[in-house]
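[recover] target loaded
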């Protein structure tokens, strides 16, 4: 399960709102292990710049920026819980490209679909496939 405060959920949706391309970032908090049933608790959202050649349908975090964000997370006493990105036109599930580029087994990959009825879903990458996990909002 991916548990996050309402403020973090709102931050992801705000990041995605009005963007023509995919947005992306890193989730920080306390990781609940590799099992999709284990609870990972998000405490902070770290926005990243999408540097993909085709940001309308892909996302890539610059490796140097990713390293800076991860170091800041760890320096703050937190862990990387996972990553988030958006699918501006849907669908609200991991794509083939998402699976091809997933590189962190046991971590959460949250996908946001902005719009009139925004949606945030999450999946844990097993190293071979994505397994859906529950998303719970905290006050």
């Amino acid at each position: 399960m991916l548990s996050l405060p309402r403020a973090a959920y709102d931050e992801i949706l705000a990041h995605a709102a009005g963007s023509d391309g995919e947005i992306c970032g890193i989730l920080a908090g306390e990781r609940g292990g590799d099992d999709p049933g284990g609870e990972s608790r998000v405490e902070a959202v770290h926005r990243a710049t999408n540097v993909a050649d085709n940001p309308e349908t892909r996302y890539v975090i610059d490796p140097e920026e990713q390293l800076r964000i991860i170091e800041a997370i760890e320096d703050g006493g937190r862990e990387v819980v996972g990553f988030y990105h958006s699918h501006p036109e849907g669908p609200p599930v991991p794509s083939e490209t998402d699976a091809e580029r997933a590189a962190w087994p046991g971590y959460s990959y949250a996908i946001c679909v902005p719009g009139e009825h925004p949606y945030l879903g999450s999946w844990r990458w097993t190293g071979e496939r994505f397994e859906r996990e529950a998303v719970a909002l905290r006050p």
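[recover] notes: The radius of gyration is 14 Å.
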